[in-house]
Amino acid sequence: MNLMRVLLLLVLITACNANAQNIDSLMTVARTTKNDSAAIKILNSVAYYSIFNDTKKAYSTLQEAKRRAIKAKLNYNYIELTNTEGVYYDVTGKRDSAKYFFSKALSLSKKEGLVELETRTTNNLGMLNWNMGDFNEALKYFFKALKLNEKLPEKTRVPESTMLGNIGLIYQEMGQHDKALEFHKKAFDYRKANNRILELPGCINNIAICYGRLGKTATAIEKYKEGIALAKQYKNYTEYYKLLENYSGILIEQKQFKIAIAYLLEALNRPAEIPFPEKSKLSVYSELANAYNNLGQSATALKYAKLGLPIIEANPDLKNYSGDLYLGLTHAYYMLGDEDRGQEYIIKFAGVTKDRFSSENASEMADLEVKFETEKKERLLAQ
């Protein structure tokens, strides 16, 4: 295959990302071309797509690509693959391994002076810390990634929407939904303007969550429906199930418990190849318990709530997300007449810090944002 065709395929991958229809043809191209760098880029793109749709394929493709990069002594490609392997372990819930590969990619990218890869890895370390519940540390990494990105030529910059969306997620976690919505809208505008259509469902999901938290239920429902339709259209099943989970929360608030349960069970029984992070499982079990409790089916509520307990025990970093599950257990036990167990879980519920956003870290986050904006203005004035 000639080099021009390989390069054209790479441009298409960059613009559209891999999708289910062209995976096989991309793999054929990667395995037949003699251009090692182009082949590895294709394999990396396929692996990244597969992380969210077929984890077994993602892992095997990553290992194939790494072997080729090592054999061809292509440092850039190897570091890029190391970063992608960190994403694989983060998505599949293996946080220690994710930290190892992200840290390795960051160290190697600094050593080689590869600012683009340093930016991407820094952003991913922010995601890892967010998933572990360390919001302040996550925000530091995201703003640092934005700062690094400013140093790059425009053509090689990491999409700004990545960091903007992640900063929105942190504000969202901390209950600052107005602030979160501001950043999510910026991320959405960037993605839409740059035709990054596969990323739109996730962005819409975050926007819908914020509208829901701000009490704008009708707008939130409209956004959830829009996101679900787009996710199905573009076969982005990871975001599709996330949207179902979050939309179910709104439906429960609207007392549409049976419809919510149907969506939650669909999310729970997703195909095995679609990633199902422990945090999402915990959320689904909690919401199912809530819905069944409201229907007066407390025995069923208890069944699902109990399934969440091993997740909390195995993942101490998810403690901040355990409150809803404890509340569901409290409700179920009291309804079933077991007041002692109900009291046990109401105490645990009270022990979970509901307000994770203290005035101290509020000030710290505000300082980070001001610092970034000030440095950005100073760079513009210096030009």
The helix/strand series, from N terminus to C terminus, equals HHHHHHHHHHHHHHHHHHH
What is the highest CATH level, the class of the largest domain?
Mainly Alpha
Helix content: over 70%
Low-confidence stretches: 1-18, 355-360
Rg from alpha-carbon coordinates: 22 Å
Taken as a percent bin, the fraction of beta residues is under 5%
Assembly type of the shown chains? single chain
Number of strands: 0
Distance between the amino and carboxyl termini: 45 Å
CATH architecture of the largest domain, by name, is Alpha Horseshoe
CATH topology of the largest domain: Serine Threonine Protein Phosphatase 5, Tetratricopeptide repeat
- The count of helical stretches stands at 19
Structural class: mainly alpha
Count of distinct structural domains? 3
How would you sum up the major sheet? none
Give me the CATH superfamily of the largest domain. Tetratricopeptide repeat domain
Query: What is the general shape?
Result: globular
Mean pLDDT: 87
